[in-house]
Write a structure and sequence with these properties.
By secondary structure, this protein is of the alpha/beta class. It has helices at 6-10, 27-30, 73-85, 88-97, 100-103, 107-114, 126-132, 136-148, 171-178, 209-220; strands spanning 64-69, 118-121, 157-159, 182-184, 198-204, 226-232. β5, α10 (209-220) and β6 form a beta-alpha-beta unit. α3 (73-85) packs across α4 (88-97) and α4 (88-97) runs parallel beside α8. The termini are far apart. The relative contact order is 0.16. Bound molecules: zinc ion (2 copies). Residues 40, 42-43, 45, 52-53, 56 line the site of one zinc ion.
Length: 233
Protein backbone atom coordinates (compact mmCIF):
# COMPACT_ATOMS: atom_id res chain seq x y z
CA UNK A 1 0.00 0.00 0.00
CA UNK A 2 1.38 3.38 -0.92
CA UNK A 3 1.71 5.89 1.85
CA UNK A 4 -0.25 9.06 1.31
CA UNK A 5 0.28 11.70 4.00
CA UNK A 6 -2.88 12.09 6.08
CA UNK A 7 -3.43 15.75 5.19
CA UNK A 8 -3.07 15.11 1.46
CA UNK A 9 -6.22 12.98 1.50
CA UNK A 10 -8.37 15.84 2.75
CA UNK A 11 -6.45 18.71 1.21
CA UNK A 12 -4.70 17.50 -1.93
CA UNK A 13 -1.81 19.81 -2.78
CA UNK A 14 -3.10 22.26 -5.33
CA UNK A 15 -1.52 25.59 -6.27
CA UNK A 16 -3.30 28.49 -4.57
CA UNK A 17 -2.44 30.75 -7.51
CA UNK A 18 -3.39 28.73 -10.59
CA UNK A 19 -4.98 25.49 -9.38
CA UNK A 20 -2.29 23.16 -10.76
CA UNK A 21 -1.99 19.94 -8.74
CA UNK A 22 1.15 18.90 -6.85
CA UNK A 23 2.21 21.89 -4.74
CA UNK A 24 0.54 24.54 -2.58
CA UNK A 25 2.36 27.15 -4.64
CA UNK A 26 3.73 26.06 -8.03
CA UNK A 27 7.07 27.31 -9.33
CA UNK A 28 5.53 29.83 -11.75
CA UNK A 29 3.31 31.36 -9.07
CA UNK A 30 6.13 31.43 -6.52
CA UNK A 31 8.10 33.84 -8.70
CA UNK A 32 5.80 36.75 -7.85
CA UNK A 33 5.40 35.86 -4.22
CA UNK A 34 8.60 37.15 -2.67
CA UNK A 35 9.16 40.63 -1.30
CA UNK A 36 12.62 41.59 -2.39
CA UNK A 37 12.45 45.25 -1.34
CA UNK A 38 12.71 45.50 2.44
CA UNK A 39 11.63 48.63 4.29
CA UNK A 40 12.67 50.71 7.29
CA UNK A 41 10.18 49.86 10.09
CA UNK A 42 10.04 53.52 11.15
CA UNK A 43 9.57 55.58 7.97
CA UNK A 44 8.59 52.58 5.72
CA UNK A 45 10.84 53.77 2.91
CA UNK A 46 13.10 51.22 1.25
CA UNK A 47 15.97 49.99 3.35
CA UNK A 48 18.42 47.20 2.70
CA UNK A 49 17.90 44.17 4.97
CA UNK A 50 14.96 45.91 6.67
CA UNK A 51 17.17 47.95 8.98
CA UNK A 52 15.92 51.30 10.28
CA UNK A 53 17.75 54.28 8.78
CA UNK A 54 20.27 55.86 11.09
CA UNK A 55 18.18 59.02 11.39
CA UNK A 56 14.98 56.96 12.01
CA UNK A 57 16.13 54.65 14.74
CA UNK A 58 14.88 55.56 18.24
CA UNK A 59 15.26 53.58 21.44
CA UNK A 60 11.70 52.17 21.34
CA UNK A 61 11.70 51.40 17.62
CA UNK A 62 12.06 48.01 15.94
CA UNK A 63 15.68 47.07 15.27
CA UNK A 64 14.74 45.52 11.96
CA UNK A 65 11.86 44.23 9.89
CA UNK A 66 11.65 41.28 7.55
CA UNK A 67 8.74 40.99 5.12
CA UNK A 68 8.61 37.67 3.31
CA UNK A 69 5.90 38.17 0.70
CA UNK A 70 4.47 40.99 -1.37
CA UNK A 71 0.86 41.30 -0.25
CA UNK A 72 -0.98 40.75 -3.50
CA UNK A 73 -2.03 37.88 -5.75
CA UNK A 74 -0.84 34.59 -4.33
CA UNK A 75 0.17 35.94 -0.89
CA UNK A 76 -3.24 37.57 -0.40
CA UNK A 77 -4.94 34.28 -1.29
CA UNK A 78 -2.70 32.26 1.03
CA UNK A 79 -3.34 34.55 3.97
CA UNK A 80 -7.09 34.84 3.46
CA UNK A 81 -7.38 31.09 3.06
CA UNK A 82 -5.69 30.61 6.41
CA UNK A 83 -7.70 33.35 8.07
CA UNK A 84 -11.17 32.65 6.76
CA UNK A 85 -11.05 28.98 5.86
CA UNK A 86 -8.93 27.78 8.74
CA UNK A 87 -6.13 26.48 6.50
CA UNK A 88 -3.30 27.08 8.96
CA UNK A 89 -1.75 23.77 7.94
CA UNK A 90 -0.99 25.44 4.64
CA UNK A 91 0.81 28.41 6.25
CA UNK A 92 2.70 26.11 8.55
CA UNK A 93 3.80 23.93 5.66
CA UNK A 94 5.02 26.91 3.64
CA UNK A 95 6.97 28.42 6.52
CA UNK A 96 8.63 25.13 7.36
CA UNK A 97 9.49 24.26 3.76
CA UNK A 98 10.12 27.44 1.77
CA UNK A 99 13.73 28.40 1.22
CA UNK A 100 13.12 32.05 1.88
CA UNK A 101 16.78 32.82 2.47
CA UNK A 102 17.23 32.56 -1.28
CA UNK A 103 14.52 35.05 -2.13
CA UNK A 104 14.55 37.62 0.62
CA UNK A 105 17.59 39.69 1.66
CA UNK A 106 18.09 38.26 5.12
CA UNK A 107 21.73 38.87 5.97
CA UNK A 108 21.08 41.08 9.02
CA UNK A 109 18.06 39.07 10.09
CA UNK A 110 20.14 35.90 10.12
CA UNK A 111 22.65 37.64 12.37
CA UNK A 112 19.82 38.54 14.74
CA UNK A 113 18.65 34.90 14.76
CA UNK A 114 22.07 33.75 15.91
CA UNK A 115 21.39 35.53 19.23
CA UNK A 116 18.53 33.04 19.82
CA UNK A 117 15.64 35.50 20.25
CA UNK A 118 12.36 34.37 21.80
CA UNK A 119 9.57 34.23 19.22
CA UNK A 120 6.47 36.23 20.24
CA UNK A 121 3.28 36.56 18.16
CA UNK A 122 1.35 39.85 18.09
CA UNK A 123 -1.52 38.97 20.42
CA UNK A 124 -5.23 39.25 19.67
CA UNK A 125 -7.63 40.61 22.25
CA UNK A 126 -9.40 37.66 24.02
CA UNK A 127 -12.73 38.83 22.57
CA UNK A 128 -11.39 38.69 18.99
CA UNK A 129 -9.73 35.38 19.74
CA UNK A 130 -13.08 33.91 20.78
CA UNK A 131 -14.74 35.30 17.64
CA UNK A 132 -12.15 33.92 15.29
CA UNK A 133 -11.13 30.82 17.18
CA UNK A 134 -7.40 31.21 16.61
CA UNK A 135 -4.67 33.80 16.21
CA UNK A 136 -3.05 33.59 12.82
CA UNK A 137 0.11 35.33 14.09
CA UNK A 138 0.55 32.41 16.52
CA UNK A 139 0.52 29.88 13.69
CA UNK A 140 3.22 31.81 11.86
CA UNK A 141 5.27 32.42 15.02
CA UNK A 142 5.15 28.76 16.12
CA UNK A 143 6.26 27.54 12.71
CA UNK A 144 9.15 30.04 12.72
CA UNK A 145 10.20 28.92 16.20
CA UNK A 146 10.25 25.32 14.98
CA UNK A 147 12.11 26.21 11.82
CA UNK A 148 14.87 28.13 13.59
CA UNK A 149 14.83 26.11 16.85
CA UNK A 150 13.90 29.08 19.06
CA UNK A 151 11.92 29.46 22.28
CA UNK A 152 8.30 30.53 21.82
CA UNK A 153 6.18 32.68 24.13
CA UNK A 154 2.54 33.63 23.56
CA UNK A 155 1.53 34.46 27.13
CA UNK A 156 3.80 37.28 28.34
CA UNK A 157 2.63 39.94 25.88
CA UNK A 158 -1.13 40.49 26.04
CA UNK A 159 -3.60 42.72 24.25
CA UNK A 160 -5.57 44.41 27.02
CA UNK A 161 -7.58 46.86 24.94
CA UNK A 162 -9.98 45.82 22.22
CA UNK A 163 -9.11 48.17 19.38
CA UNK A 164 -11.90 46.90 17.13
CA UNK A 165 -11.39 46.93 13.38
CA UNK A 166 -8.69 49.27 12.18
CA UNK A 167 -9.78 49.18 8.53
CA UNK A 168 -11.08 52.56 7.38
CA UNK A 169 -9.41 54.53 10.16
CA UNK A 170 -6.90 57.27 9.51
CA UNK A 171 -3.33 56.85 10.69
CA UNK A 172 -3.91 59.11 13.70
CA UNK A 173 -7.10 57.22 14.64
CA UNK A 174 -5.23 53.94 14.45
CA UNK A 175 -2.43 55.20 16.64
CA UNK A 176 -4.83 56.59 19.24
CA UNK A 177 -6.80 53.34 19.32
CA UNK A 178 -3.61 51.41 19.96
CA UNK A 179 -2.38 53.54 22.86
CA UNK A 180 -1.86 51.28 25.91
CA UNK A 181 -3.39 48.39 23.96
CA UNK A 182 -0.71 45.94 25.12
CA UNK A 183 0.68 44.94 28.46
CA UNK A 184 3.46 42.65 29.47
CA UNK A 185 3.84 40.21 32.34
CA UNK A 186 7.23 38.69 31.69
CA UNK A 187 7.55 35.03 32.48
CA UNK A 188 10.22 32.71 31.18
CA UNK A 189 11.36 32.35 28.46
CA UNK A 190 10.55 36.03 27.91
CA UNK A 191 12.41 37.61 30.78
CA UNK A 192 13.96 40.96 29.87
CA UNK A 193 16.26 40.74 32.90
CA UNK A 194 17.66 37.57 31.41
CA UNK A 195 18.58 39.62 28.33
CA UNK A 196 16.20 37.89 25.95
CA UNK A 197 15.76 39.54 22.56
CA UNK A 198 12.44 39.19 20.78
CA UNK A 199 11.39 38.17 17.31
CA UNK A 200 7.94 39.73 17.03
CA UNK A 201 5.68 38.06 14.47
CA UNK A 202 2.49 39.07 12.66
CA UNK A 203 0.78 38.00 9.46
CA UNK A 204 0.39 41.31 7.63
CA UNK A 205 2.07 44.73 7.90
CA UNK A 206 -0.44 47.42 7.01
CA UNK A 207 0.72 50.67 8.61
CA UNK A 208 3.02 49.04 11.13
CA UNK A 209 1.15 50.75 13.99
CA UNK A 210 0.34 47.49 15.81
CA UNK A 211 3.82 46.08 15.57
CA UNK A 212 5.43 49.36 16.62
CA UNK A 213 3.14 49.60 19.65
CA UNK A 214 4.02 46.01 20.68
CA UNK A 215 7.70 46.80 20.26
CA UNK A 216 7.41 49.87 22.44
CA UNK A 217 5.68 47.85 25.18
CA UNK A 218 8.43 45.23 25.06
CA UNK A 219 11.24 47.77 25.12
CA UNK A 220 9.70 49.75 27.98
CA UNK A 221 9.73 46.48 29.92
CA UNK A 222 13.46 46.22 29.34
CA UNK A 223 13.83 44.14 26.17
CA UNK A 224 16.97 45.31 24.39
CA UNK A 225 16.35 44.25 20.82
CA UNK A 226 13.16 43.51 18.89
CA UNK A 227 13.06 42.40 15.28
CA UNK A 228 9.74 42.22 13.41
CA UNK A 229 8.78 39.59 10.91
CA UNK A 230 5.60 39.58 8.85
CA UNK A 231 4.45 37.23 6.15
CA UNK A 232 3.43 40.05 3.86
CA UNK A 233 3.05 43.76 3.42
ZN1 LIG B 1 0.47 28.09 -9.74
ZN1 LIG C 1 13.60 55.20 7.91
Amino acid sequence: MSKIPFLDIFFPKKCVGCGKMGKYVCEECEVGLWEEEQICPVCTRNSRYGLPHKYCHGSYALDGLTCLWAYDGVARKLISRAKYKGRYDLLKFLILNFKFEINVPMFKFNEFLKGKPVVVPVPLHPKRLRERGFNQAETVAKALATRHVLAYDSHSLQRVKDTGHQVGRTRIERLLALEDAFSITPRPPLDPRGGANILLVDDVWTTGATMNECCMTLKKAGVKKVWGLVLAR
